[in-house]
Write a structure and sequence with these properties.
Layout lengths: L6 H18 L15 H25 L5 H26 L7 H21 L11
Organism: Zobellia amurskyensis
Protein name: VanZ family protein
Pfam families: VanZ
């Protein structure tokens, strides 16, 4: 029963572990390093943080049982994801041998976080069938 009531918590924490691992581990010795699609890196950053912010809003809803106002949950998710993205970029710059921090990556992270939060917010808008409060 606990797992059923914690599905977004598990999804969010799992997603953040995946993002952290993927951001800080080197992939230079893999075939993935040979893929050369223009701006694919920025699309990946956008997608990682779109998912992070989207799941963060649902995580907040689950943990507060809908008690936190939707607007506040969205704000926390966006600010938290943006700060986390900046921290990851600093860690890449400071502590990895073949990864580097990039301001454009941080920008892609931020845009993804903003749009991910707005996407989930739209699901709970007055015109939709989903209700924020439990």
């Amino acid at each position: 029963m606990v797992l059923k009531n914690s599905k977004y918590t598990i999804a969010f924490l799992g997603w953040m572990a995946f993002v952290t691992f993927s951001s800080l581990v080197s992939f230079s010795d893999t075939d993935a390093a040979d893929i050369d699609i223009p701006n694919l890196d920025k699309v990946v950053h956008f997608s990682f943080y779109f998912g992070a912010a989207f799941l963060a809003v649902l995580f907040i809803r689950e943990r507060t049982k809908g008690g936190m106002e939707l607007r506040k949950a969205v704000l926390f998710a966006v600010v938290g994801a943006i700060i986390y993205g900046i921290i990851i970029e600093v860690l890449q710059y400071s502590f990895t041998a073949d990864r580097h921090g990039d301001i454009l990556d941080a920008l892609a992270n931020s845009v993804g976080a903003i749009l991910g939060s707005l996407a989930v917010k739209s699901l709970f808008s007055k015109e939709r069938w989903l209700k924020w409060e439990n």
